[in-house]
Design a protein that fits this description.
The chain has helices at 5-10, 22-31, 38-41, 177-181, 194-199, 209-224; strands at residues 14-20, 82-91, 100-113, 117-128, 131-143, 167-172, 232-239, 248-256, 259-266, 269-279. With 284 residues, the protein is an alpha+beta fold. It has a ten-stranded antiparallel sheet.
């Protein structure tokens, strides 16, 4: 059995040292289409999008290495059978450093039985010498690995309130976006190779879920938070459907003071559901 649930849940946490440089931050921003916006694309007075936390230590500074599947105890699943199902990141500092090093502790928090698939929830805690930097939870959909009689997990998080959204933001992706985003460390061939994508049931290579996640974060910061990345303190979403590079994301936002409920679609199809952001007031 590719997933040994007891072994996975009872394994000791894995600790890893990570490091990143300004180059990693610049590449991350460029892969999200920062273009000539020097706040994100030039090292002087560089702002760091909070979602960079999710690729820190994995990009060009980590060296050249092939893409790998999950290597945690109790998990032995081929990379092509995995899809990113959801993500939450919570920042514990006003700003992420544009370069630095930290210790990342990873454990498997849950293995959910969805019938035809299993959902593996990875919890990460990251801290440097000054204390906690961020925490995150990553949900991975492992196709064909369910049906073992386990807990299906709780329902996804908050849903948008009734009524029309307070804001609607359209964000265009580019044809080369997935190829650029791969350079942040996730070189799963599903995002580049048409043959691999076809075997996985997709008409073309798809955009990384975390690329769409970063695009949503950037749009929220730029259009709703006065261009201040430090005001975005938490972002969570369930990934509901794929995006083909070149398609346009529509971000519907229901804003209630410092809490945002989000829904992201592409055409008539859902991309993110049960999504939210937590922010700080202007000027913070």
């Amino acid at each position: 059995m590719p997933i040994d649930v007891d072994k996975a849940l009872n394994a000791p946490p894995r600790t890893q040292q990570i490091a990143w440089t300004t180059r990693d931050v610049l590449l991350y921003h460029l892969s999200l289409g920062s273009g000539t916006d020097l706040r994100y694309s030039y090292e002087r007075d560089l702002e760091v999008l909070p979602t960079f936390a999710l690729v820190a230590g994995q990009g060009i500074s980590a060296g050249d290495r092939p893409a790998e599947g999950l290597t945690l105890p109790g998990v032995d699943v081929e990379l092509t059978r995995l899809l990113h199902a959801g993500q939450v990141v919570t920042l514990h500092r006003d700003r992420l450093p544009s370069s630095g090093s930290a210790e990342r502790t990873t454990r498997i928090a849950e293995v959910q039985d969805k019938g035809k698939a299993a959902v593996i929830v990875l919890a990460h805690e990251v801290a440097d010498a000054d204390g906690p930097l961020w925490t995150s939870k990553m949900s991975v959909w492992a196709r064909g690995e369910g049906g073992f009689g386990g807990d299906p997990g709780v329902a996804a998080g908050p849903k948008p309130p009734e009524g029309d959204p307070t804001h609607v933001l359209d964000v265009a992706t580019t044809l080369e976006q997935a190829l650029l985003y791969r350079l942040n460390g996730d070189r799963n061939p599903l995002h580049a190779d048409p043959e691999v994508a076809a075997k996985a049931g997709f008409a073309a290579p798809i955009l990384h879920g975390l690329a769409s996640y970063g695009l949503v974060a950037k749009a929220v910061v730029d259009h709703l938070l006065d261009g201040q990345p430090a005001r975005l303190r938490e972002l969570g979403a369930r990934f509901a459907g794929p995006v083909i590079p070149g398609e346009t994301l529509r971000i519907s936002v229901w804003q209630q003071e410092n809490e945002l409920s989000l829904k992201v679609t592409c055409g008539d199809a859902a991309v993110f559901t049960d999504a939210w952001a937590r922010t700080t007031p202007g000027g913070a």
